Amino acid sequence: MAERVVLAMSGGVDSSAAAYLLQEQGYEVIGLFMRSGATDDACSLDDPRALPVVNVKSHKQGCCSASDAADARRVADELDIPFHALNFQDAFSRIKDYFAEEYLAGRTPNPCVQCNNWLKFGRLWEFAKQVGATKIASGHYAQILPGPSGEPELRRGVDRSKDQSYVLFGLSRDLLPNILFPVGSYEKPKIRELAGAARLDTANKKDSQEICFIPDNDYGRFVEQYRGKQETAGHFVSTSGEILGEHPGYQHFTIGQRRGLGIAFGTPKFVTEIRPDTREVVLGDYEELGRPGLVADRVNWLVDVPNRFRCQAQIRYQHKPADCEIEVHDDGTLTAHFDEPQFGVAPGQAFVCYDDDRVLGGGWIQKSLQKDDARSTTQSESI
């Protein structure tokens, strides 16, 4: 019998092409669409080909986008694979809670990483075991390849412009042998070409750019609607402490932001710090954004690393990897020292370490370092 794999289907071209590629590789594919819980009959589970599911509720509730659910189902029909649209409202609520709490704490959250950790792979693997699958898959642009010892390693996707390995650093190392990324070894244009050749409806569908539960990209308004009106309004201040004006709420801002400040200056100003305790948003020149390093906590390693080593690291999704030295601490945190100052180090964002295209692991930025912070003189080891 063919090996069974559960594929996360989002209704986009990448997961659609992944379904096609997995079939071509001889797998028995089961499609799973993860719904957030919004009401919509378009996400009905009335599919006579659906496999029985143990301990999973199948209420007729909707998803982040009913049209995405419909697209995913059409692709499943075109490929003749079983399809499930399951309600994971509790997990999505957890992600929304995290998102709002981080902004109210003056940090910049990354819900896509947490969605991968808590939902797309954690819950996906739970479901896979219930239906007798030995693998799970998604349409992410990343790769799982054997390392020198044969142990699977997470690596960047072949298409560097679409690489999504950054948002996958939190995967469990033990789960890597069970994960497949079918599109990760292809360039994006080739994926669209394959989807078109397979006559899939999503071949020319536009890529989604926004956070699924904030389609208008107004994060500050979402926080207010989700958590209610908060006492977050305060002052813009300079790096020297001078009051520059008033702001409607610090949750509307993030480190490195220049546009949308609602206040004009003779020269460009950037958000260099957010102080939730005093409700101050600090503005400075671009040069004042530079930081020599950072501290990250909740670290997850995907390979064995020494206590001190050199690597390249990203401080946000589209950040050019920066050369740095990493100190790993016994309390589960790490300190990174950059060779050159990095601009826009935002607490709350993911910090991911690479060795060329191999993902070593990463954590969550706790704070940035200042120029006078002490640096250890211990020699780095090779990875």
Largest sheet: 6 strands, antiparallel, barrel
Radius of gyration: 22 Å
Number of strands: 17
Question: Count of DSSP helices?
Answer: 7
Q: Considering the protein shown, what is the CATH homologous superfamily of the largest domain?
A: HUPs
SSE order: EHEHEHHHEEEEHHEEEEEEEEEE
* CATH class assignment of the largest domain: Alpha Beta
**Oligomer, anyone?**
single chain
Shape: globular
Any guess at the CATH architecture of the largest domain?
3-Layer(aba) Sandwich
Integer average pLDDT: 90
Unreliable runs, pLDDT <50, ≥5 residues?
38-63
Q: Hey, roughly how much beta strand do the residues contain?
A: 25-35%
- Under CATH, the topology of the largest domain is which? Rossmann fold
Count the domains. 3
Can you describe this structure?
- This protein has 383 residues and is α/β, with parallel strands linked by helices.
- The chain has three domains: 194 residues, HUPs (Rossmann fold, 3-Layer(aba) Sandwich); 54 residues, SH3 type barrels, CATH 2.30.30.280; 80 residues, Elongation Factor Tu (Ef-tu), domain 3 (Beta Barrel).
- 21% of the residues lie in helices and 28% in strands.
- The protein is built from seven helices and 17 strands.
- The strands form four sheets. It has a six-stranded antiparallel β-barrel. Strands 3-2-1-4-7 form a five-stranded parallel sheet, with helices on both faces.
- β14 and β15 form a beta hairpin.
- α1 packs across α6.
